[in-house]
Amino acid sequence: MKCPYCGHSDTRVVDSRPSDEGAAIRRRRECPGCGRRFTTYERAQLEPLMVIKRDGRREPFNPDKLLRGLLLACEKRPVSQETLRHFAYTFEDQVAGPEISSEEIGLKAMAFLRDLDQVAYIRFASVYREFDSVERFIEEIRHLGGVDKREEG
């Protein structure tokens, strides 16, 4: 495997262990070129889940894209990266069919974050729903139940 830091073409596996309840293998790797370590995950891929984009294009589901969005929303929040990783890498297992719309992925991610961390939920929703004003933030927070009606007046 190629090193993501220096591009060295041969890295060494330092440790392997089951992950995601045996559905994946977690490997710690070390680069002999730069000495840095990184983690990879290996999982069986039978039939790739296809994502239907808003413009109608189809592309294979990429859990790394979902994980990046979740990590950004949860930055500096008391949320375990392992929890986010587990959600992203087991997401395909939760989908019934061979296709899912990008909109459905966003809605499932927002539902996950709503239960996990409300600040992260608002961050994710603001990007996903393209909030264009402060009023949209306030509306979403009220919908979330974060504003007491007595404090409004």
TrEMBL record:
GO MF annotation terms: ATP binding; DNA binding; zinc ion binding
Entries under InterPro entries matching the protein: ATP-cone_dom, NrdR-like_N, RNR_NrdR-like
Zinc finger unnamed: from-to: 3-34
Needed co-factor(s): Zn(2+)
Domain ATP-cone span(s) in chain numbering: 49-136
NCBIfam families the UniProt entry points to: transcriptional regulator NrdR
Reported function: Negatively regulates transcription of bacterial ribonucleotide reductase nrd genes and operons by binding to NrdR-boxes.
Record protein name field: Transcriptional repressor NrdR
Species whose genome carries this gene: Thermus thermamylovorans
